[in-house]
Design brief:
This protein has 344 residues and is of the alpha+beta class. Helices cover 43% and strands 24% of the residues.
Length: 344
């Protein structure tokens, strides 16, 4: 029998609204970014064992946990030898969904390989099953995964997510056909990782911290309003400038609540302030916070280039010239990187 193999790729993500609040039943909206992680798994002829790529100790430990989870779900995988290769240009540990993309691509590659070997001609997996498996894998990285990051990576494009209150259930999703959205997207160093920020906020809410409860509820309200604005953006009479102003205003409002929750840092505050001064309509941290990913909303490409140039200067001044900083243009049909000043 020929040796089996599976290969799949998944994109990174940018969470626009609803981070943290989504874990407590509120909606969220996010979009995929044209950065990708590709996972290739090939069966080898040796008796047993997995050949994993060289990674830092923490990353290798998490990857091995992911492999062991696949052993549990598909015992046949523990009886063969496989070579695992990972290629990615998604910035890691900054809130762009690198772990979600890895989990989605890994599960897709596993299912493709098993389908080829045991069920030739069959579909690798239905969407819901694949999403559930990928999100179970994502729990290994963040401890409490809502399903949004893996959903964006699996579904692509821009989607809204809604929760029905069923414990552990994946959210419902709907495509969002927003009008032209121009963003300057970047990242700064994080204070702690996503798992720490998620756990810390969970402890505050469990203790009925009124300030944390207020901010989470407000973030949920802003996400509801953002979905309405995005859904109406293509309606005749809604100008691109008004659309950008509305999204920027909501981004600023959400950023204030995330800052109140301690999910920003001084470097990020400085960078966002420079972006607003350069013409951005608003902006915010994106993802688990503590720094990391952010975006600023631009009215048009000329403004976006001015914002990009201003942030390039401030990042250089801060010694962060190697951090990602790109202009992203999202249309109804595609998301493109229009300009970049740093390699991922």
């Amino acid at each position: 029998m020929a040796l089996s193999a599976g290969s799949a790729e998944s994109p990174g993500k940018l969470l626009l609204f609803g981070e943290h609040a989504a874990l407590y039943g509120y909606p969220a909206v996010g979009m995929s970014l044209p950065w990708y992680t590709r996972v290739t798994i090939r069966e080898e002829r040796s008796a047993s064992g997995w050949n994993l790529p060289f990674l830092a100790e923490d990353d290798r430990s998490r990857l091995w946990d992911l492999v062991k989870l696949m052993f549990e779900l598909f015992p046949v995988l523990s009886r063969k030898a496989y070579n695992l290769a990972i290629e990615s240009n998604i910035p890691q540990g900054l809130g762009f969904g690198s772990s979600a993309a890895l989990c989605v691509a890994f599960v897709k590659a596993i299912l493709i390989m098993l389908t080829k070997r045991f069920f030739p001609g069959a579909r690798a997996a239905d969407l819901d099953r694949l999403w559930a498996l990928a999100n179970r894998a994502e729990h290994l990285f963040h401890g409490m995964a809502s399903g949004i990051d893996t959903g964006i990576s699996l579904l692509g494009q821009m989607h809204g997510f809604h929760f029905d209150g069923k414990p552990g259930a994946l959210p419902r999703h709907c495509g969002v056909e927003a009008g032209d959205l121009i963003l300057v997207v970047g990242a700064v160093p994080r204070d702690g990782d996503a798992k720490r920020h998620i756990a810390g906020l969970s402890e505050r809410l469990a203790a009925r911290d009124p300030a944390a409860e207020f901010s989470i509820a407000r973030l949920g309200e802003i996400a509801h309003e953002a979905l309405d604005v995005l859904g109406q953006s293509g309606v005749e009479g809604n100008s691109p400038q008004d659309f950008a102003a509305s999204i920027g205003r909501l981004a600023d409002a959400a950023d204030q609540e995330l800052h109140a929750l301690g999910l920003s840092n001084d470097i990020l505050r400085r960078v966002l302030a420079h972006g607003r001064a350069a013409g951005a309509m608003g902006g915010k941290v994106s993802g688990a916070g503590g720094g990391g990913a952010f975006y600023l909303v631009a009215r048009n490409m000329d403004d976006a280039r001015a914002i990009h140039a201003a942030l390039s200067c401030v990042l250089r001044e801060l010694g962060l010239a190697g951090h990602p900083l790109i202009i992203v243009r999202r249309t109804k049909n595609a998301t493109r990187i229009e300009e970049t000043s740093a390699r991922a």
